[in-house]
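lol ok so funny story. i was supposed to be doing the assay writeup but got distracted and ended up predicting the structure for this chain instead. priorities right. anyway since i did it might as well share w the group, maybe its usefull for someone
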Amino acid sequence: MSNAAINNPLEGEPPLPEPPESQPQQEAVLWKGKARSWVRQLIGETLSRWGARLGAIWIGLLAFVGIFAPLIASSHPYIMKVDGEVSYPLLRFLTPTDITLLVLTFTGVVLYFIKRLSSGKRVMIFLAVMVVTIPLSMFKKTPLIPNHRQYRDLEQAAALGGADAPKIDYIIRAPLPYSPEDYLRDRPETRLKPPGGGHLLGTEINGADILSRMMHASRTALAIGFVSTGIAVVIGVTLGGLMGYFAKAVDMLGMRLVEIFEAIPSLFLILTFVAFFGHNIIMIMVILGVTSWTGYARFIRAEFLKLRQQDFVVAAQACGLRSFSRPHSASWALARSASRVGVRCWNRRAAPAENSTGGSPCSRALRSS
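and the output, tada:
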């Protein structure tokens, strides 16, 4: 029999289909499908929600601005050459926090693009760099009272000329040449200026640039958002899981506790603590976290109660297994966390834009903290 007859035994029939992929190729495809870890699946499910996407975008923007604020908005030039001498004023005035954040950000970006390292090695290298950077940055001495106007006086003296006038070869400044503490006392006419004329958002009553102050305040906004939301997530997920797992008396007592905390007005509680204990940003973070965990607890409790009735749970219990629940609702908790962090950061950033002497007593108390 000819080869043609073997390949196509019946004349007029369509050719036989191609043989399936080889076993190694099929195993590679299956392994590629299983390569996504539970953490990556969780992140994918979280970012599939629009609220989480918007919150993540806002948090990313705040993080970028907060980390690079000293390089974006500063009265100190990057580099300047005066009378033949080159100096780097911005580096002199970087604080230990600025140095730590910049070094850790650079390390994280470099480790992200090194694909040959495993996740465990990346984490270990990042932690090692952090452990080394934080103590070393403490030896950096930063002037306590910076003189922001000295550079403007220097430029003015060079422009006037004269025998003793300095010779400025070049000065490279930041995109926004105003520090948050630069009140422009040498320019009193700039107070309460509307947007425009070099101040994109105008100036406040003391003459400081509002955009610069908002950019540098991003770190405080992120700290409030992450710490308070982290406290709320830990408490809510823990108590919600306990209520759903044990049910009965534990569930009843837990729900009564949820109702008590939902009846507490967090804003008035903050004002009360500020009145008695003074302005403390850490205290405000803790109060916001302790009074906002009820939403997480309700949802996690409902998920655990639903899982108790699933067939795979009944089968697992029939086999003698006692633990039945996994954090299937973790993607919802992360999505809500991202949106809550974004909302709290926005609320914190909105306060500096108001008049420093105006607003309600509540807003003044929050801003002063």
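The mean pLDDT is 78. Strands lie at 79-82, 85-87, 168-172.
back to the writeup now i swear
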